[in-house]
Specification:
A 3-stranded antiparallel β-sheet has the order 4-1-5, with helices on both faces. Strands 2-3 form a two-stranded antiparallel ribbon. Helices cover 67% and strands 5% of the residues. A hairpin with a 2-residue loop joins strand 2 (254-256) and strand 3. It is mostly helical.
Amino acid sequence: MFKTIKNALKTPDVRKKLLYTLLLIVIFRLGCYITVPGVDTFALSEYMESASNGMASLIDLISGGAFSRFSIFAMSISPYITASIVIQLLGMVIPSLERLAKEGGEEGRKKMNKYTKILTVFLALIEGLGIYLSYSSTGIFTGTGFVTGFTVVISLMAGTALLMWLGDEITNKGIGNGISIIIFVGIIAGLPGAVTSIFNLIMPIISTNPIVREFSTTGLLISIGIIIGAIILVAAVVFVQQAERRVPVQYSKRVVGRKMVGAQNTHIPLKLVMAGVMPIIFASSFLTFPAMIIQMFIPDIASQTGFWATIYNFSIASSTSNVGLGYTIANALVYLLLIVGFTFFYTYATFNPAEVSNNIKKNGGFIPGIRAGKPTTDYLSSIISKLTWFGGLYLAIIAVIPMLVRFIPSVDLAFGGTSILIVVGVALETIQQLESQLVMRHYKGFLE
């Protein structure tokens, strides 16, 4: 990895892309500290210190602390993620959208992206309005009139729109997937807090003076367990993300132009998790969306009981242990099903066995022992189904287990399985894209 980065920095155009990506990341982090107009920062600080809100904690984790500061990026990129889910699900049930996605080519992709952005602005309006209504009674705003509300909502919408633009710029002119990079940076921003939490376990404060601390053997053992668990989790994620099933393909001799091309033996690399980290991101956003809507209409829902409070507690159970073990187990089961479902959805959206089979047949190729045409399609479908089941369940289990570990006394995981999956997955995808950029420039040795 370090050799890849070193070679990238030596290549002028790749170095330019890297620096441009870093510049946009810096802009994102600066925006996380620009408070929305109309917010009393002192009142906000006091309220956030005393409040315990699972929904706020989840958004704050993804946004890199922007939500707790009520910055212009407080909503992060979540409206865009939700809009992407809706548009892609609509593409499965609306024939015109399905044709646009599959047969529209580059122009179709641009139109789908346009529809996603329009829906994002609409969802950002709803979410921004909900956030303002939810916190209007807390005293963190300098006013309560229409002008204050309008300013807050417009600022939040503008922040989300700016993040969309930053994501597109990173994707088109930088390195990596822009939206994933923004989420990655937001999560990584909490790393110093995670280090502080581990230090507080080992050297807990024993008086009102934070300087007076006492060494804790129990805290040390718990910290070592957390660190070892995180290392094992990262290693497992890297192993599965890099693992692939290679399907052999043979091509017979054929005439290309005026030349005879000899027989070739190659393979189709099929990864265990072809969908990458997107199932995790989408499942998390889909599961927490009800809590965001409920809190919009019932600002003090966290302190209430009843049907809507039950739905709210169930929705935020993945981000907090304050709602109880029962809610967390129910949430974990639904979370598992959503991750597996989105894994299948994204896998078959990116890999079409029938299309691959036809391409192999057109080029005079075949899989040894498998007849060309439908048998090849069925064979590839069978392999993809097995790999996706394994990959989806693997992702789900890694995301769910840390949710249950939180209930062990004295254990406070700053980074859950979902966060580690996203961080490691995005890092791997970005390095692979960087390597592909260098491959096109004839570099050798860094993939050894």
